[in-house]
Each structure stands twice: as structure tokens, then as C-alpha cells.
Design brief:
With 79 residues, the chain is an alpha/beta fold. Helix content is 41%, strand content 27%. The protein has helices at 12-25, 42-48, 60-70, and strands spanning 2-8, 30-35, 52-55, 75-78. It is globular and about 30 Å long.
């Protein structure tokens, strides 16, 4: 099982473009978006496209770690 982990902070506009493309490939069994201190619609956008959304501390490394802990896949792909 492959899980894709995406750190996000005010990335709603990017997620709108990225998540449908990931879904279309069918390569991932799960997408986890680790959201930190977003003031935009990042979390809602990720949920709209079927991603699991978790709250994470601010900072790319901390977000990736939180996403890895939450992911269910045997394999992880970090974006």
C-alpha cells in the first residue's frame, strides 16, 4: 500500500490542481495532507478530493513526520 504525504500551509490553490491529478493516476492508496496554521481553505480542499487531513505543527519536517505517523501505507511518498 502506498501513502502520499503532503505538507500544506495556505496551499489550497495548489491542492486544487495537485489532488485531482494524483487521484487520476490511481497510484496511491491514500493521500494524507498535514495542514499547519493555514488561514485558507487547505483542509477543506483536501477533504473535498478525498484526502485524509491531519493537523500538524508548523514546519515541513514536522508536518512530514506527522503525516508519516498518520499514514497507513507500507510505502510512503513525500511531496
Amino acid at each position: 500500500m502506498l501513502s502520499i504525504v503532503i505538507p500544506a500551509r495556505n496551499a489550497g490553490a495548489h491542492l486544487i490542481r495537485t489532488l485531482p491529478l494524483l487521484a487520476a493516476t490511481g497510484v496511491a492508496d491514500e493521500v494524507v495532507v498535514a495542514v499547519a496554521d493555514s488561514s485558507d481553505d487547505s483542509a477543506a480542499t483536501a477533504r473535498r478530493f478525498g484526502a485524509a487531513v491531519i493537523a500538524a505543527p508548523r514546519g515541513r519536517g514536522l508536518q512530514l513526520r506527522a503525516g508519516a505517523i498518520a499514514a497507513r501505507g507500507e510505502w510512503l511518498l513525500f511531496l
